[in-house]
Amino acid sequence: MPTFQRAALFAVLAVSQITHGSGAFAPAHFGARANLVDKTTLTSSTTTSLASLVQDDSATGKDSYAENSRKFRRTVYSHDEWVKHRSPDRFFKNLSTLGDSGIFKSLFKEVAATTVVATGLIVWNCIFGEYQDFSFVSHPGPMHDSLIPILSLPLAPFTLSTSSLGLLLAFRTNTAYQRWDEARKNWGMNINHTRDLVRLGNAYYDRSAVSPERAEDDLKRLSLCTWAFVRAMKRHLSPEWEDEEDFKIEMLEKLPKEQAEAIFAAAHRPNRALQDLSLAIENLPMHFIRKDEIHRAATIFEDNLGSSERLLSSPIPLFYSRHTARFLSVWLLLLPFGLWESLGASWNHIDLIPAHFLLSIFLFGIEEIATQLEEPFTILPMQAFCDKIYNWCNEIVTFEPGDNGMPVYTNEGTPSVGPGTLISGEVNIR
User: Fold this and answer.
1) Which of 171, 211, 322, 372 is the most buried (most CB within 10 A)?
2) For residue 167, what are the CA distances in angstroms to 8, 290, 335?
3) CB of 115 closer than 8 Å to CB of 360
4) Element (H, E) at 284
5) What are the DSSP E strand ranges found in 39-94?
6) Parallel, antiparallel, or unpaired for β 130-132 and 138-140?
């Protein structure tokens, strides 16, 4: 058969495979564009197809395995977990649980599509070319004498494009990890500065100016307002369907009802919670310079919130993510044709199926990891962070100067008490 006829036949096959299989490789948000189509201009058959497309896209959205499994990726390690993490048996365990891998389960459609292409290629070439029986004796296929050729490609194009594909995947994965790392650092700053703020408020508080009951109330309010901000930030960065109900329950349990409802009603809840925190700081009896020091700690919360909002609202440029996904999808769909001759030593080229199956899992897995990391907040253990902040802040405000037997000294003298004199059972800080 002339070369141009072979090329034309192959092009038709490749286009049909990509057209029918591309839906398995498109990220969920790509399908949202279908909602922009004016359904009044569609025929009944097109409307039915569009409805099925939207339904399929919904199934791969928030109800998909990939989305539902994100809550189980919010790991918080202790020493015991690190020991397991470093276990010398980790390689065998990871290989033995490949079928249970969340990445593999998320990629079932993509891997199935490429494996079907590899299997179909073997069947096609056995029909229109030659096949081997169980004794490894070659026989002409049922359609061997027809004009339809066997399908294959030279491996050189795949070899030449491998480095380009590797660069695309490496950049996408590294950029996604940097986004996760920045989000984790933002929450690390929240943890550090919540403790710092409450510690300063407790240490600077002038207990000589108010009653013990007032001091207890002020510091408890400072602790709760500090926790309320990070909890409101967690809700702000989480999906509404996942966290709204729990958020309201927690806030009503721990805050005064009026304060909690004011936060609920705010258009930007973290801003309202931060305003309450600022007022709680202003109400503390202490020198204004010390209040400014505490306010500087609170200002860092606003910076962390803004950085997190930027990560949530601005993905990696879509044209980059889409091009990488398309490049990888086409590359893996056509790879069986390039491996046909290379794996010809096996019985009926059967090695093509497991080889391509594993390649699809691992290469698609790299892209899937990047996609999962790109939006970091729903895989960060933010609820665990908030719970720790609540416990630690409430503990800090229970500390009182001198309650552990350490001496407490005044910072300025009086006619009867000079600087550096031990004050027994009393704090003289202004």
Assistant:
1) 372
2) 31, 52, 18
3) yes
4) none
5) none
6) antiparallel
Q: Which residues contact 198 (CB under 8 A, 6 or more apart)?
A: 219, 222, 223, 226, 393, 396, 397
Alpha-carbon span 413 to 428, nearest angstrom: 10
Nearest-CA neighbor of 391 among 239, 259, 194?
194
Collapsing DSSP states into helix, strand and coil, what is residue 409?
A: strand
Query: Which region among 152-161, 166-175, 405-414 has the lowest average model confidence (pLDDT)?
Result: 405-414
**How many Å apart are CA 14 and CA 124, to the nearest integer?**
14
Q: Write down how long the chain is.
A: 430
pLDDT score for 46: 34
The mean predicted confidence, pLDDT, of the chain is 81
DSSP readout, 374-404? Answer: HS-GGGS-HHHHHHHHHHHHHHHTT--TTTT
Region 307-313: what's the mean pLDDT?
A: 95
Task: Evaluate whether 333 touches 140 at the Cβ level (below 8 Å).
Answer: no
pLDDT higher than 50, residue 25? no
Per the CB < 8 A criterion, the answer to whether 61 and 28 are in contact is: yes
Cβ–Cβ < 8 Å for 323, 168: yes
* Separation between Cα atoms, residue 271 and residue 268, nearest integer Å: 6
Higher pLDDT, 402 or 149: 149
Q: Show the DSSP H helices in 129-211 as ranges.
A: 156-204
Nearest CA among 236, 315, 323, 326 for reference residue 272? 236
Q: CA 266, CA 297: separation in Å to the nearest integer? A: 23
